[in-house]
Every structure is written in structure tokens, then in C-alpha cells.
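INFO batch 0412 | record 1 of 1 | parsing
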Amino acid sequence: MNIQTILVVCVGNICRSPMAEYFLKNNHPNLNIESAGLSAMSGHSADAKAIHCMDQLNIDMRPHIARQITAEMIKKSDLILV
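INFO prediction complete | emitting C-alpha cells
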């Protein structure tokens, strides 16, 4: 299977899944990588502690905005990490 689209999922989509999303994007810029939450804090930015952790890796995740997972996201993903 040729993986082109990865979806990373957690509960709120402000810490774990966006950290994984931005880490993967940094290491695999040719892939389409997104994140979402099962009970997302939709519209919120990433948690300040998560941003600080990623800053230590020189990865800026400040643009992140939390969003709720949808059926469409699931359908278009080649791989879903939870």
C-alpha cells in the first residue's frame, strides 16, 4: 500500500495528535498529514505546553487549530494513528 494521507487522532486535538501531526509533517513533508479529535476542542489553538515541547525540537505548531474528526477525514486517510 502506498501511504499518502495520514490522520492522527486523540481526544481534544490540542496536545497529542497535533504534536504527532507536526512532527510527522516535519519529517515527511511530501505526505498529507492531518489531525483531529474524537471530542475536539474545536477552534482552540494547541496547548501552550505542547507548543513549548515542540519548540524544543524547532517545530512550530502555533498555526494549529483543533477540529472534530469527520467521516470524510476517515474515508480519505490511508493510515489512521490513534
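INFO post-check: The mean pLDDT is 97.
INFO record closed
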